[in-house]
């Protein structure tokens, strides 16, 4: 516990079980972006070189308006699907806990997208791998404390809930996590001993029951399962402690609570 009053206001207390759902639109957002890029290329003026950085802007002329609207609608639909996806995953997790431990009360702390854009005040802020970190407001449920900032750790590592300060140089944004130390492809080649040690200490629930004798005898299935786990294992990510300290030191967000993992359900 780092900030007792803010934690209490948000319903977070020592010993509480916190469910954190980390999921999005299941590639719908990626498809919306690909469709948007295709439309931009199709109306790009002939003879005009493409931008060297690969970023293609929508032209703000009347001819391009229908394509812009279709893109924004597709992007919005993906965002809405992501919200529903997280909501129903949380309901499923809560139902599983109730079946194992009995009915308990629960409440939503916050929903924080980390790949979306926000329009307002004459500008558009696109947060890719970042999350809103607004500061104090005159009204609203989070006005007294600043906007909740969720910085998830890797499997087996702590996660943090912070409160944003609305730092203008950070565009009222904060990083969404510690970031990868090792690329996915390289992390999948890590040693088997490292993965076994991690699985011995920490509970990871997956759709595949690797303890089933019929599954365990399938060397190809087990190899693919272990490869997927290695890509998200703790050693593939940077330490989250220094990242949170950097957010606090830069005045971007202040820690409220540290969440220590009990298990990960990986789809």
TrEMBL record:
Keywords: GTP-binding, Ligase, Manganese, Metal-binding, Nucleotide-binding, RNA repair. The keyword Secreted does not apply. It is an enzyme of class 6 (ligase). It catalyses: a 3'-end 3'-phospho-ribonucleotide-RNA + a 5'-end dephospho-ribonucleoside-RNA + GTP = a ribonucleotidyl-ribonucleotide-RNA + GMP + diphosphate. Transmembrane segments: none annotated. Its EC number is 6.5.1.8. The keyword Nucleotide-binding applies. It comes from the Bacteria. Its cofactor is Mn(2+). Pfam families: RtcB. InterPro entries: RtcB, RtcB-like_sf. This is 3'-phosphate/5'-hydroxy nucleic acid ligase.
């Amino acid at each position: 516990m780092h900030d007792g009053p803010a934690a209490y206001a948000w319903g977070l207390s020592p010993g509480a079980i916190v469910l954190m759902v980390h999921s999005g639109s299941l590639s719908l957002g990626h498809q919306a972006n690909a469709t948007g890029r295709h439309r931009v290329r199709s109306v790009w003026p002939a003879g005009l070189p493409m931008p060297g950085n690969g970023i293609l802007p929508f032209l703000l002329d009347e001819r391009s308006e229908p394509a812009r609207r279709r893109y924004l609608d597709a992007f919005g639909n993906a965002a809405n699907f992501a919200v529903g996806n997280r909501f129903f995953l949380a309901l499923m997790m809560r139902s599983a806990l109730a079946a194992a431990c009995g009915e308990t009360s629960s409440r939503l702390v916050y929903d924080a997208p980390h790949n979306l854009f926000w329009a307002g005040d004459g500008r558009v802020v696109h947060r890719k791998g970042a999350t809103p970190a607004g500061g104090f407001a005159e009204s609203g449920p989070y006005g007294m404390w600043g906007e909740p900032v969720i910085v998830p750790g890797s499997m087996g590592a702590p996660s943090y809930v912070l409160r944003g300060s609305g730092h203008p140089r950070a565009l009222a944004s904060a990083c969404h996590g510690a970031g990868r130390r090792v690329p996915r492809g390289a992390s999948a080649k890590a040693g088997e001993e490292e993965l076994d040690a991690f699985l011995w200490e920490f509970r990871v629930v997956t759709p595949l029951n690797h303890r089933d004798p019929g599954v365990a005898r399938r060397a190809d299935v087990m190899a693919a399962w272990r490869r997927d786990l290695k890509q998200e294992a703790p050693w593939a990510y940077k330490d989250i402690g220094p990242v949170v300290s950097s957010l606090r030191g830069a005045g971007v967000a202040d820690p409220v609570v540290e969440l220590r993992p009990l298990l990960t359900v990986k789809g």
